[in-house]
Amino acid sequence: MSGKPRLTYLNGRGRMEPIRWLLAAAGVEFEEVYLETKEQYDKLIKDGFLLFQQVPLVEIDGMKMVQTRAILSYIAGKYNLYGKDLKERALIDMYVEGIADLMQMILMFPFSPPDAKEKNLDSIKERATNRYFPVFEKVLKQHGQDFLVGNKFSWADVQLMEAILAVEEKIPAVLSGFPQLQVFKTKMSNMPTIKKFLQPGSPRKPPPDAHYVETVLKVFKK
């Protein structure tokens, strides 16, 4: 086995995508194993790979890690993307948790019944423009720095960039009232590791389609 982290999940975004983003932003190459059947998933559980019978699974530094939040904080700490002290780490945690709440709505959107899609899209827009994006617009404006915490690139910046692009896919003009976030997005897009991740052919996954939804329901069916 190579020394690269090995990611086991479905061939789609889901809860693995922020992990892919963070590794890519840190300049770390990784390998992926895709689950396509319920039998593959059941075997991982039977073999004791999944502590809580859930994926994502990331094999890194001799560990088999589960739980998205634990994986992300380990990667952030390992690659110096987690602040310089406890106070900075607390700020990063607060920002990341807020973004995760918004991303949860986006994560569940493809599984909405057809008659609820429009209502759910309105909810995403309302939350993004009234609750979440104003926070980051204000933070960037108040301290006048390029990054959210400590004037240094961190996990919070990566997660915010992922969220901005995910919301823009659904609501293209969502940043129209947020000039600071527009500047932030441009700067992030031009960081070499993120620029590379945004190119075609990178490990970044496309927006979930009907096939992805079908695979998720098949693999995780009770």
From TrEMBL:
Domain GST C-terminal residue range list: 85-209
Keyword NADP carried by entry: no
GO BP annotation list: glutathione metabolic process
GST N-terminal domain ranges (all copies): 3-83
Assigned keywords, A-Z: Transferase
Top-level taxonomic group: Eukaryota
EC number from the UniProt entry: 2.5.1.18
GO molecular function: glutathione transferase activity
Name of the top EC class for this enzyme: transferase
Membrane spanning stretches: none
Family, as annotated: Belongs to the GST superfamily. Alpha family.
Protein name: glutathione transferase
Organism field: Lanius ludovicianus
